[in-house]
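Morning F.,

Quick status update on the modeling queue. The single chain you submitted on Monday has been processed. Sequence for confirmation:
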Amino acid sequence: MSIRRFFRQVLLATTFSLTFASQWAHAQATTGTILGTVADDTGAAIPEAMITVRNLGTGQERVVKSDGSGVYNVSNLQVGHYSVTVTHDGFAPVQIADTELQVAQRATINPVLHVGAISAKVEIIASQVPLLNEASSSVGQVIDTQTVQNVPLNGRSFWQLTQLTPGVSFIQGGQNIPAGGTSIRASAVNVNVNGLSPSWTGWYLDGSNITETQLGGTLISPNVDALQEFKVESSNMPADYGHSPTIVNATLKSGTNAFHGTAYEFLRNNAFDAKNYFYVPPAGSTRRNQPLHRNQFGFAVGGPIVHDHTFFFIDLQSTLYRLGQNFDNIVPSAAMRSGNFQGSGITIKDPLTGLAFANNTIPASRIAPQAAYFLKYIPAANQVRGNVSHAVLTNSLKQQLDLGDIRVDQTLWSKDHLTGRYSISNNRETDPNAFPLLGGFPLRSRGQNVVLRETHIFSPKWLAESQFSYYRSVFFFTSSLQGQDINTAAGIQGAEGLSPPQYYGLPTITISNYTGFNGQSGSNSYPKQNKIRSWQYVERVTYSSGKHEVRFGYENFHNLNTYISGSSSLGTFGFSNAYSGDNFADFLLGYPASGSRSYFRSLWGDYGNYQAMYVQDDYKMRSNLTINAGFRWEINPFYNGIKGQVTGLNPANGKIVIPDDFSLQAQPGTATLYPLFSDRLQTTSSLGLPTTVRPTAKVNLGPRLGIAYSGLKDTVFRAAYGIFYLFPDNNAINNTQNVVPFVASQTVNNTKPTPTLTLGNFYLSQPIVAPNTSNAVCSFGFVAKSCSQPSVSTMELNTKNTYVQEYNLAVQHQFGSKLSLDVAYVGNRSLHIVQPFQVNDPYPGPGTIQNRRPLQQWGTISLSRYAGNGNYNALQTKLETRALAGATILVSYTYGRCLTDGTFGGLTREQSGGYYYYGPCNYDLHHNFVTSGVYDLPFGRGKTFASSASGFLQGLVGNWGLSGVGTLQSGLPFTLTVSGDPANTGLGSQRPNITGTPQMVRRPNCWYYDSRNTSCPSGGTDAFAVPAQYTYGNGQTNTMRNDGLVQFDISLLKSFHFTETKSLEFRGAFFNIFNHATFATPVTNIDSTSAGQITSTLNAARSIELAGKIYF
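Structure tokens below.
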């Protein structure tokens, strides 16, 4: 998308919001509440006092009266700054000035009136909102505008600051955890809250659910200059929230009666960066690090359209990013490319005769034309190391990411408020290829979100909100040379017909011990299209009457996920040394050892409709006791498959269950596959099941109960309990669609010792679908030289919704007016977690694997079962200051433990090994210490030092600021494995035997001692062993720990003030300022010669970012 077109979309959205906002209407809490008790100077309650709450930015007012106990409650207030004015006959009026109200905050203000005339001068006093949370029992943290805009953020992504909340960790990488990288192909948003899976965290923007239902996280990450603030609700949210046990709730800024805004540019360059610990420059290069250039620029501005009535806010940001990546390719020498293997030490044999080629050289006439065609893509060697030829090359990742938001707020009358917002995130990216002539892997992604809401005030006690939102994300992954018929050009026959022409491209060619052709290798480089769409409608009615704030709500959430996947439809070809004695020689001769292909997957996916109703009462029983009680009822059906593409397994007879309404045209091979497998299939109606293949759970009841008690001066005690249900696991449902009769694949093994199939005709004589002589179907319906029963990935029929029980007990104490300490026990218990069990594996033993399987009509069966459990228990502490000696500081420390049998640490779980798979969660951090602060340095006019400075001196020493974030984390767990299949069960990634206490060396070349690793110091004792034949090892999940994260990011800024509202700011940010390398997970395979070795870091080396910013 061009910049011009991008701006055009944002402007078009502005018109849309203004035109249609009045036809729709808000829900999930993007607002706050001001409440308290009005009393006289003797402490007696004052009923019928008039309380006027005024938004200082927009001029909007709400007026209520205190009840017979002097209690008042003003709910559903837009986040911002307010004044609170209180009047009553016989008392002098009082105004509490400039109170900041945060998202989802219940701010307690207790005005005190003195006897006097109502016409007396208004007494103006400073804001009285305490740091104490006196009216809510939930656990969380608000990150305000000052923190969001001033602390250093590498990439300006606000979600990095979620780690400032106790119990929250921003996972940088590690085994079993996708690394948050620059490429959007990685899991960019990977936030773990209280030991729960990152995909369980819900993401909200202005009350709209913007969570990716397939991958978790979100594509919408607002420009931080557009963000008012956000809150991490980490435990026991009110009943307003569902389908996520934790949420991140962000709110965009809105326009006010005064124009205000920022314009900025941030710059990063590898010239400012330190050398990465493991970086090795290409031959002849003197560079210290990879080439990197990142420019981020944009603006945010808001103001009035009609004074006191209509306001706008708009922001745009572009990021231009270039990162050089090194590729160390193992390639043939120049002589080998021409067939000359003299001096290689390997005798090259003619596969057709078994005799050695003359002069150890393959004649030019015997080089396969297909191999000659692909040779042009293999780069020439430019280094030789230990008689191995390398092509060390640098290729660049290129990315342009554009973000934008437009928001319009309209006050129609005193009782109606309308809001419309449109947000877009548009990413264009090309990931580099190891072979430059093959081009890169283009990726296009876009996230869009529209919110329309209306708030109507019926009376001071009754208020209604309506909100409609739509979220859409699109991913387009493109393979190398997509759209080009490479197979035909190369002379490969028989591989056509499985893929539409627009998805033609490069097949995958692997040559053992050499870098292969990465045409479709890796799940993200297949041609692929993912579209996630969700529609959300929420209606909420609020009743506020003194001690009670009662909310009644209804939510409807419709989700539609569609996919297109190329998989290996263009064919894969694997070359070993099976025929000539050398891997590359087999490639030149054109004799693959094996290959596979599958049908191109046309449109598939799932859809579902979620509904919920709830009631929540925040009851101020006494002035020092608040009860938060709620109840949520959810109807959370399992997804339907598009064209009936969803399956289950009937354990009684081993048949695959499919919907009655499935379509024979669901996939290209379905009509052919269905008759072949009909005796192994069963329809839902025969079992009395709906088309979702699983019954809908209609009794998902989620109680929420908590108390906040402030019986001691400046101290609050809080306790809460709640149950939170999750959406069905989308990835588990996707896996049920990758089976017959919807998917077909083929595996072909060449004949031995003499090959009969060549690269040119490998698939030519293989019919697409046919049964073999044993009435089995060869590898999902393809005839091959070696046949096997098809494997199955599906889900059990008797599934239950995953849910989490949360509980917390906390005490908070405020010291003075600017410092508070919060100490809490936070725990949760997860039930019915999805587990991928291998339910058709044989017990360890000798003999043919297939003949020992319980269900011999199938190969492996990976069955998703909602049978896992987990628990988390933690001590969470938080120290918070507010403008203390010019500093705002937040320090959090969590000591926790997370255990589960819902994740297997990278192992393949056999059905008999339950005990061995219960252990630390993948995200188990025993210690997590995070500190952040924003400090206005005490120099210049009105400060401690040089307080009378003016002119040049003030310009030199005044208006300096310092901010930073420091993180200390203990290591994440990882699991040891063994290679091969010692148990002879067909399962990969099996457990080793633990024979002693592991010796932790903690060096990059030897993290744990293993005698097979020659880099380890001598004299150690092995604590691991390969299991005896036909046995599993006794190793457990996640028993080892990698390096702990140590990182400090610092930002120094200098401002030049021209007027009260106009200033120029320069800043420098230093990420990982002490250049501390935190090592990633080591090699976990204990029988490898590189066992325990580490080749990468979790964090980047020190980098510096410079920026300029204008405030107006």
